[in-house]
């Protein structure tokens, strides 16, 4: 009798293991959301994860989203609505939505945010096998997040070589942003407060924090979107980057909305994501 019970329990265990293994093969993986995943010790160093069904380590691409807020405010929750937007246009992509430490007074000035994005990217990279995603990463940033996306994608290529960058009106030249404010709404003092210095007191920090410094022929394909009436980041920031990318022979697209401000909704936002999807489908293989 005891032997019969033992055999029965072993049989149940074998069946259970077979069932679990079958449900976790790449073709059977289900859609999954993970929120507030920790990638560092600080409370702000968290990210949300969306993993598509049927994902695998050879074909599943990822978009890493970075919120804006002048490096001193904002939250990943502001980007959450775009997960469905991306799912609808780019089915099969995983999406990661990042928080990072914010400048508060004299704390967390540059390059804190740059370092956090790098740390988050390396964390995601380390989880590729666990998440069942490939090494095809795309960065998408808005405003300050656009700056951080460009800086990460141009400045660092190990262990992660980003496949493409989507930049919504991000600053590209911090010295120019300081010297030539777009309007009274972003005075030079604001830039000094987040960088922690002026261009004259620390020119190297400004240079090292500017995506334009790192443009070369190996930069990933980049799509830039900008409003013509932007009161915070002049379109000249995107135009300067576009010209450098063209001269370097880097695939790029500059999308200009003459009557838009620092962000937009409605038909132009739909158009933006249509253009982004087309750009990524062409350039991320």
Cross-sheet strand order for the largest sheet: 1-2-4-3-5-6-7-8
Can you tell me the residue ranges where pLDDT is under 50 for at least 5 consecutive residues? Answer: 1-24
Number of domains: 1
In what range is the share of β-strand residues?
A: 15-25%
> What is CATH's topology name?
Rossmann fold
Shape: globular
Q: Major β-sheet, in short?
A: 8 strands, mixed
Q: Can you give a write-up of this model?
A:
This protein has 285 residues and is an alpha/beta fold. The chain has one domain (30-283): Alpha/Beta hydrolase fold, catalytic domain (Rossmann fold), CATH 3.40.50. It has ten helices and eight strands. It has helices at residues 2-23, 81-89, 112-126, 128-131, 144-155, 174-179, 188-195, 203-208, 235-248, 266-283; strands spanning 32-38, 46-51, 62-66, 94-98, 137-142, 164-168, 222-227, 252-257. The protein has an eight-stranded mixed sheet with strand order 1-2-4-3-5-6-7-8, sandwiched between helices. Helix 5 links the parallel strand 5 and strand 6. Helix 3 packs across helix 5 (144-155). The chain is globular. The N and C termini lie far apart (60 Å).
SSE topology sketch:
Layout (H helix, E strand, L loop, with lengths): L1 H22 L8 E7 L7 E6 L10 E5 L14 H9 L4 E5 L13 H15 L1 H4 L5 E6 L1 H12 L8 E5 L5 H6 L8 H8 L7 H6 L13 E6 L7 H14 L3 E6 L8 H18 L2
Parallel strand pairs: 3-4, 3-5, 5-6, 6-7, 7-8
Antiparallel strand pairs: 1-2, 2-4
Helix pairs in contact: 3-5
């Amino acid at each position: 009798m005891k032997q019969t019970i033992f055999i029965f329990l072993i049989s149940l265990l074998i069946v259970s293991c077979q069932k679990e293994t079958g449900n976790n093969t790449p073709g059977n993986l289900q859609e999954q959301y993970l929120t507030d995943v920790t990638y560092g010790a600080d409370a702000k160093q968290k990210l949300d994860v969306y993993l598509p069904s049927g994902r695998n380590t050879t074909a599943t691409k990822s978009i890493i989203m970075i919120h804006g807020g002048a490096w001193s405010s904002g939250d990943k929750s502001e980007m959450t609505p775009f997960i469905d937007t991306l799912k609808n246009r780019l089915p099969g992509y995983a999406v990661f939505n990042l928080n990072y430490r914010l400048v508060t007074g004299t704390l967390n000035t540059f390059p804190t945010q740059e370092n956090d994005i790098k740390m988050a990217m390396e964390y995601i990279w380390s989880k590729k096998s666990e998440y069942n995603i490939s090494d095809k990463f795309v960065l998408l940033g808005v405003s300050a997040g656009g700056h951080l996306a460009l800086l990460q994608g141009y400045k660092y290529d190990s262990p992660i070589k980003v496949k493409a960058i989507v930049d919504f009106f991000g600053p590209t030249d911090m010295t120019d942003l300081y010297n030539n404010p777009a309007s009274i709404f972003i005075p030079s003092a604001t830039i000094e407060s987040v960088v922690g210095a002026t261009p004259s007191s620390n020119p190297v920090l400004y240079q090292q924090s500017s995506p334009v410094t790192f443009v070369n022929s190996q930069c990933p394909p980049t799509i830039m979107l900008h409003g013509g009436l932007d009161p915070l980041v002049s379109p000249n920031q995107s135009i300067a980057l576009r010209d450098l990318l063209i001269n370097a022979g880097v695939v790029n697209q500059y999308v200009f909305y003459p009557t838009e401000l620092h962000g937009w909704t409605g038909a132009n936002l739909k158009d933006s994501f249509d253009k982004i999807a087309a750009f990524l489908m062409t350039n991320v293989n």
